[in-house]
Design goal:
- The complex is a heterodimer.
- Helices cover about 80% and strands about 0% of the residues of chain A.
- Chain A has 7 helices and no strands.
- The N and C termini of chain A lie far apart (about 70 Å).
- Chain B is mainly alpha-helical.
- The chains are: A mainly alpha, B mainly alpha.
- The interface of A and B includes residues 25, 42, 76 and 195 of A.
């Protein structure tokens, strides 16, 4: 069988366009995946506006801001890695992939510290949930969304970090075909999407109700 | 510095500046405008990431895909939201479960 028959594409460019389009479709199904949780958040914010503001003030805004900065920086490193790989600066690309991976690790460590202190404050919406005040049920609803959204996001981040690690190791070992520029680009698209999700989670979960008394 | 690298560094600086702006604005007592400003800045940051890092401008197919997805999401929010918005919540008082009497 010849190569032309095995490939449904006319040329490399058409194939690259199809790859990109396919990944964007996947990313948009991911958006639909986050959609119901975001709708739940919108409903809660309208219906229990006061309680949501009270609950949001209990999140750690310093760590949340630090984490946003870490993720934004990781996206910049990822974009630089893709650019380096495209211009065949493989060593630079490998290093930048590693930096992106380490920034992802730092994000997860900070998130873990937040989870730990929230667990000790009885904010995890399980059997041990406790919150003083009449809004406790709605605050619990907020923290259900907080944990669901951040945990699903962290899961996506871990998937992205796995991709980064696999490609960084492949490039390090000189697997030029496996770590082709096109593939690094697609991994980058996924990483940036996860970053964009966090860009919206940050004001929704951490900044709500900060100005109120 | 490579031209592409400069674009990335510029976008990165803009993203961190916007992060500082959104964080600082959250403490201004401007009521509902806090939410508007925060979400507006988030949308701007997302647009920078999509345009500079994800090269969304280079693929019309991808742009169409994003447009359709956002439209569908809007549709879902509008339809489900109109249901919740036009119905009152009447939580029932807690009732003890029925107990079975032994014969």
């Amino acid at each position: 069988m010849n190569a032309a028959a095995a490939e449904p594409f006319d040329d490399v460019r058409q194939r690259a366009r199809a790859d990109t389009f396919g990944l964007w479709i996947f990313l948009m199904t991911e958006l639909m995946f986050f959609g119901p949780l975001l709708f739940g958040y919108w409903f809660g914010r309208v219906e229990y506006a006061h309680a949501f503001a009270v609950a949001s003030r209990h999140t750690d805004v310093t760590l949340g801001t630090l984490n946003t900065a870490l993720l934004l920086s990781s996206s910049a490193a990822m974009a630089a890695a893709v650019a380096a790989r495209v211009r065949r600066a493989t060593r630079v690309a490998t290093g930048l992939l590693l930096i992106t991976f380490l920034l992802g690790c730092a994000f997860l460590v900070v998130k873990g510290l937040e989870y730990r202190s929230e667990w000790h404050e009885h904010l995890f919406p399980g059997a041990g949930f406790a919150f003083a005040g009449e809004d406790a049920a709605a605050v619990r609803y907020f923290y259900f969304l907080y944990f669901a959204l951040t945990a699903v996001h962290a899961l996506h981040l871990i998937v992205g970090m796995t991709l980064l690690a696999v490609f960084a190791i492949a490039l390090w070992r000189g697997a030029d075909e496996f770590g082709a520029p096109r593939r690094i680009e697609l991994a980058g698209l996924y990483w940036h999407f996860v970053d964009i999700v966090w860009i919206f989670l940050y004001p929704l979960l951490y900044l709500l109700g900060r100005s109120g008394a | 510095m490579h031209r592409n690298t400069r674009r990335i560094v510029l976008a990165w600086s803009a993203l961190l500046l916007l992060l500082a702006a959104t964080c600082a604005s959250a403490w201004l007592p401007i009521g509902v405008w806090n939410g508007v400003v925060n979400l507006g800045i988030a949308a701007l940051k997302a647009a920078i990431v999509a345009a500079v890092f994800m090269h969304l401008g280079a693929s019309s197919a991808a742009r169409a895909c994003v447009g359709v997805a956002l439209f569908v999401l809007l549709l879902i929010f509008a339809l489900a939201g109109s249901d919740y918005a036009t119905r009152d919540l009447h939580p029932a008082a807690w009732q003890p479960p029925p107990t079975r009497t032994m014969p």
